[in-house]
Structure formats: structure tokens, C-alpha cells
Write a structure and sequence with these properties.
The protein is an all-beta fold and about 325 residues long. The protein contains one helix and 24 strands.
Length: about 325
């Protein structure tokens, strides 16, 4: 169990929690236990919640210069085709060793035909060196401008320091063409970034953390039950159930400052896929891009200490109808 001085330390933290009392709810039972609303509205932060103390702490996500993700602008030179100046390239993080490279629209005339516009996009493996990033691409096939492009790949190096160069080899082969085309893309490195927490999340006690609709645990695990009746769930009723641990290399959006230019910054993090199902997002194909539906089933979280908490989400907005605020009823430890 945690010591009293840890509880006092939590009391001194800046909290983003609002406690509410619930009697009757939409799930057919009467709940007079713990209820909480956790602020998860900002893209650029995580809010951590501790079941035992009922307190939360927020850490911001910051960008660090010298990463590989970012926006680049340079010239693409393709022998026998020519030079295209001021080509924009956006590099986004896919996982800790993989990026997605997207090259802005360029215009090429193929085999004497009229010029066609192409957008190149492919993944590449990334290895960090002392002064640069090394990219190695595996050939892939895409469709662009109504043409199938085979063996599309990016490879090369990107300097870590501002003012150094990104030098990429771009290869592709329009379907039906007997040979591939290869060009060199050169750009001056500017505000390429990587994203990390502005603080140490292992320096304080917490059990679950929220980022928008994303949730992770602190070395714990979770299971979703086939009931919405929070009162009926006991420690005996979860015996033998399979709990799902967090998994690595999930990407969450943390930097939206250049979204209008096409770049979104992602942080690589662990997530718990079961708890992330507390809200279901359905694409609309229009505006707004998604509709959201709350999952009112009971979830049980197993903490790293081997204790259990039962929770049931009641809303994803606060009293002012602002999202994302994770409202839930809970009991800890589970009896």
C-alpha cells in the first residue's frame, strides 16, 4: 500500500479532476460510490489517474529537435526527366523504427504522353546514427494519378541538426514501363522533430492515463465485461478471466500546429486496446469526420500491484459539454 506522504504529495499536485456524486444512472443500477471526470481534452498532454488516491496529474508532450518526423522542402532531380523545385515532403512516425514518407504532387511526362501528376508515398525503416538518420525503404506498389506505380521506395539520410541536409533516393516504376526511374531529393533540414513527455511518468503513482480517447495503464491490464451493471461485479465474478496488457508502438496525435499544411506530429506510446474501446469512433465520410458512441460496459483494470478496479464510463464530456472528459464510476480495490 502507498504511504501517507505519497497521498499528501498527490494533494499538492495540480489536479484536472472533478468529483461528482451519482445516484441513478442509465445502466439500471444505483451507484453511490466513487465517480470522477478526468480532463483529456488536449492533444499535447496526458492525464494520469490514481485509483487509490482519486487524484490526477497532467504531463505535457514536447517536441525535441533532431527527430526525423517533420516537413521538408527541396528539389527532386530525376535523370532523363528533369528537376522539380520546391517539392514538399512530409515524414510521419509509424513506429519507433518506421516512418511514412509522402512526397507532394509532382508533374511528369511519361513516354511522350501528356504530363501526369503523381503523389509518392511509402514506408521506410529508420535507424538512428550519431549525426543523422538512415532510411531504408522496401519497394511497394501505389496508385497515383490513375497510374499504378511499382517498386516505390525512399532511402537515404536525414541530418539531425538544423541546416544540415536530407538526401533521399526516390525510386518508382510506372506499370508497363520496362525500367524504373530513380531520382535524388535534397532538402535543408529545418524543424524536424521527435515527441516525448515533458516529465517523468515513473516518478509518481498512477494506474491509468488518458490522451483524448486513448488510454494506457501503468504496467497493468484490462478486460471488458458483458454487463453494464457495475454493482453486480465482484472480485469473485472475474475469476479466470483473460486480461489484456498494453502493447507498444501505437501512434497518438500530439502536434496539430501544422495540420493545415498537411503535417501532424505523432508520439509513439503504449496503449491498452481494451480500454481504448471505451468510445467507438465511426467515420462519417464528411464533416464532422467521426461520430462517437460511449461504451457503457463495465471494465476491470488489474494494476501492476495485482489489485483490481472496476470502472464504467458514463460520459466523454463535462458539465459544459466539452470533450474529451472521461467521466466514470469506479470501485477500488474491487471487493
Amino acid at each position: 500500500m502507498k504511504k501517507m506522504n505519497q497521498f499528501i504529495a498527490w494533494g499538492l499536485m495540480v489536479c484536472a479532476v472533478c468529483f461528482t456524486a451519482c445516484s441513478d444512472d442509465d445502466n439500471g443500477d444505483s451507484w453511490d460510490g466513487n465517480s470522477v471526470v478526468v480532463n483529456a481534452a488536449a492533444y499535447e498532454s496526458w492525464t494520469y489517474f490514481d485509483f487509490e488516491t482519486g487524484m490526477s496529474k497532467t504531463l505535457n508532450v514536447k517536441s525535441q529537435e533532431g527527430g526525423v518526423a517533420g516537413m521538408y522542402e527541396g528539389d527532386l532531380v530525376i535523370p532523363r526527366v528533369g528537376t522539380t523545385e520546391n517539392v514538399k515532403v512530409i515524414i510521419s512516425t509509424v513506429s519507433k523504427d518506421t516512418v511514412l514518407i509522402s512526397m507532394d504532387t509532382i508533374e511528369l511526362a511519361m513516354s511522350g504522353s501528356s504530363a501526369s501528376k503523381f503523389v509518392f508515398s511509402a514506408k521506410a525503416k529508420v535507424e538512428e546514427g550519431s549525426a543523422q538518420w538512415v532510411l531504408t525503404g522496401a519497394p511497394t506498389e501505389i496508385e497515383s494519378g490513375g497510374v499504378i506505380l511499382e517498386n516505390v521506395s525512399f532511402s537515404g539520410t536525414i541530418g539531425k541538426e538544423e541546416g544540415t541536409q536530407a538526401v533521399l533516393t526516390v525510386s518508382f516504376q510506372p506499370k508497363g514501363m520496362p525500367f524504373a526511374l530513380s531520382g535524388t531529393y535534397t532538402a535543408t533540414v529545418g524543424d524536424n522533430k521527435t515527441y516525448v513527455l515533458d516529465g517523468d511518468e515513473i516518478s509518481f503513482d498512477w494506474d491509468i492515463a488518458f490522451h483524448k480517447y486513448d488510454i494506457k495503464t501503468n504496467g497493468g491490464a484490462a478486460v471488458k465485461l458483458n454487463t453494464t451493471d457495475l454493482v453486480s461485479v465482484t472480485a469473485a465474478s472475474i475469476t479466470g478471466m483473460d486480461f489484456t496488457v498494453d502493447t507498444d508502438d501505437h501512434q497518438v496525435m500530439v502536434d496539430m500546429s501544422k495540420m493545415q499544411q498537411g503535417f501532424v506530429g505523432y508520439q509513439s506510446t503504449k496503449l491498452n486496446e481494451v480500454l481504448c474501446g471505451w468510445v467507438t469512433a465511426t467515420p462519417t465520410g464528411s464533416m464532422p469526420p467521426y461520430t462517437y458512441e460511449l461504451n457503457r460496459n463495465v471494465f476491470v483494470v488489474k494494476t501492476a500491484d495485482g489489485e483490481y478496479a472496476k470502472i464504467r464510463f458514463t460520459d466523454y464530456s463535462n458539465d459544459d459539454d466539452k470533450t474529451v472528459y472521461a467521466a466514470f464510476d469506479y470501485e477500488f480495490p474491487l471487493k
